[in-house]
Amino acid sequence: MNNTVDDTLPRRFSAENVRHVLRHGVSTAVFCCLIAIALALSGRGAWGSQLVYSLSIGLIAWLVIDIGRLLLAGRSATPWPMGWRGVVLIAVGTVAGFLGGNAIGDAWTGKPMLEFLSFPADKFASTLLITIGASIVICYFYYARGKSKYLEGEIALAQRDATDARLKLLETQLEPHMLFNTLANLRVLIATDPPRAVDMLDRLNSYLRVTLAGSRALAHPLAAEFQRLGDYLALMAVRMGPRLRFRLDLPDALREVPVPPLLLQPLVENAIRHGLEPQVEGGEIAIGARREGGRLLIEVSDTGVGIDVNPSLPPSSDGGFGLAQVRERLVTVYGPQATLRLAAAPAGGTIATLTLPLPE
User: Fold this and answer.
1) Which strand (E) or helix (H) includes residue 40?
2) d(CA 284, CA 244)
3) Structure confidence by residue, pLDDT tens digits, 105-134
């Protein structure tokens, strides 16, 4: 059996957990003040003394339950002990708060210690029920909030995993198609043009190396994305010959900006398939990045025949992501902060502009 602990799980007294405990303490104090007001208005005593009793009972119960749940839960993803341990913890916290809080209140008001033991049965029962009811309500409230935050985290993790799975699917669909064409061209060049075959083999090696590195992470430097595109376009240029020309412009200041792997390749594929290949003389693809304020702009432009600027353009026939899937991936990774815009180039062709938030 594997008894190792997942390092990705939260530590029991991490800064985030301590903040949650302190927030619970403040909420408990506010709730105790409301109980004190209600008891004072019902004629159970002066508001000041009721406040001391209420705060003492509530805060002791809060400390026992909130710290106890972290100790019992350990580094579990859900910081609340499940099953009988959770029930026992609430019972212990309630009893400790009831006894300790009444003792503090009695000392503050000058009454005999634990005076509640001499109360009439109905008054004792009502005092105990108020304590138990308040403890249960507060614990359920915190448990429900904690469970909601846990489920939100699980949903975000599932969305991230789904994005990663779609990326892996794209790679499994893309690589065989591109590899078969490349190997077929390589076989011809080995016999007819060995130096070009060696150059093509070097490009293929670099392309596969960056692909493998990118497949192991959800983000990689923009420089790696540009290197992958350069290798891909160089391989495509062997097949298309002089019909394909390309330029890449990446400022040094933006080389280390993290971006999702394979984010730009579907745009380049669309530029070749829908822009340059239908055009007899081919054309040029230009890929550039620049910074505008706190945002990163990446443009993929071509001098091809142009396409209809249609946001619902279907995926390519060979199983590529397509523009709709690129937009979906942007929303998953960046939310509303990222956009993809298509426009007709002034001199003909198409410009696809990606706008992404820059890290602080």
Assistant:
1) helix 15-41
2) 6
3) 778 877 777 666 665 565 566 666 777 777
3-state secondary structure of 27: helix
Rg for the chain, CA atoms, rounded: 33
DSSP 200-267: HHHHHHHHHHHHHHHHTSS-EEHHHHHHHHHHHHHHHHHHHGGGEEEEEE--GGGTT-EE-TTSSHHH
Closest CA to 184 of 125, 239, 129, 105: 239
Strand partners, 248: 287
Strand pairing report for 283-292 and 244-249: parallel
User: Is the separation of the CB atoms in 254 and 296 below 8 Å?
Assistant: yes
Amino acid making up residue 228: R
The SS3 of residue 353 is strand
- What the chain holds in terms of domains, given with CATH numbers, is 15-156 (no CATH), 242-357 (3.30.565.10)
End-to-end CA distance of the chain: 43
- Residues 6 or more apart from 319 whose CB is under 8 A from it? 173, 174, 177
Pairwise CA distance, residues 172 & 174, whole Å: 6
Residue 350 phi, psi dihedral angles, 5° rounding:
-135, 145
Q: Long-range contact list for 40-44, CB < 8 A, 24+ apart?
A: none
Q: What is the identity of the amino acid at 191?
A: A
Q: What is the DSSP string of 269-306?
A: HHIIIIIITTSTT-EEEEEEEEEETTEEEEEEEE-SS-
Neighbouring C-beta atoms of residue 296, cutoff 10 Å:
20
Average pLDDT over residues 327-339: 84
Average pLDDT over residues 244-256: 94
In the predicted model, is pLDDT for residue 303 greater than 80? yes
Give pLDDT tens digits for 258-276.
998 878 888 998 888 888 9
Model pTM score: 0.53
Q: How far apart are CA 328 and CA 266, in angstroms?
A: 13
DSSP 115: G
Three-class DSSP category at 5: coil
Cα 334 from Cα 328, distance rounded (Å) = 10
Burial class (CB in 10 A: 0-12, 13-18, 19+), 238: buried
